[in-house]
Amino acid sequence: MEIEISSCEHLMYVSEIQQEMYDSAQRRGTGIAKRSIEYLSKKISDGNAVVATENGEWVGFCYIETWSHGQFVANSGLIVSPKYRNGGVATQIKQRVFQLSRDKYPTAKVFGLTTGLAVMKINSDLGYKPVIYSELTQDEEFWSGCKSCVNYDILMQKERKNCLCTAMLFVPPNNTINEAENCSPQKEYNNNEVSQKNEVHSTPKGSGELRLTINNKKNSDEKESNLSV
Q1: Separation of alpha carbons 31 and 64, rounded Å
Q2: Which CATH superfamily is domain 2-174 in?
Q3: What is the DSSP letter of 149?
Q4: Tens digit of each residue's pLDDT (9 = 90 or more) over 102-142
Q5: Rounded to whole angstroms, how far apart are CA atoms 103 and 90?
């Protein structure tokens, strides 16, 4: 079996992939939101998907999508052909599409919504954690993609706070570091630094007169702070 980053060569499988996505959702009575042929074709041709094949047959599929100006990446539409299920294919595809997400968007948070226990286990092994929906992208376009899901009414009744899907999120270490560098303690340090530099001294000058002087000294071991933007 071959698991490859998608290209135009894989467009021949798009109709089968779309149909199996729809059929699988119908059998379970829960969502994979239906995607159009045009939507899936663009994912495949742009190299934003992973396709598994064997002897010219389609085996499995998953694609990535970015949200909130690249701050979030979703791994979506994971599907395996019925003929190849229960053989570890889903795990291999998820690992490959997760790596594709990390390679393309190394600082982005990676998330997914799923109703499947098997997918939850795979995500957990990759470092995802269950989260509430408010931790995910709030991009309206992402949530509008749920309109074709059979559970969309439930999602809206609950004001997008939860649904039948479990939300899972992976936060890369470099994302955490960037947030830490921009937190308030750094700002407080800078303010203290300024106050220490600009010490105000009063010295007598003549009878009953005070002279104010500004001391702009800089400690020899003082280092410049680096701010990330």
Answers
A1: 17
A2: Gcn5-related N-acetyltransferase (GNAT) (3.40.630.30)
A3: S
A4: 999 999 999 998 888 888 999 999 999 999 999 999 999 88
A5: 20
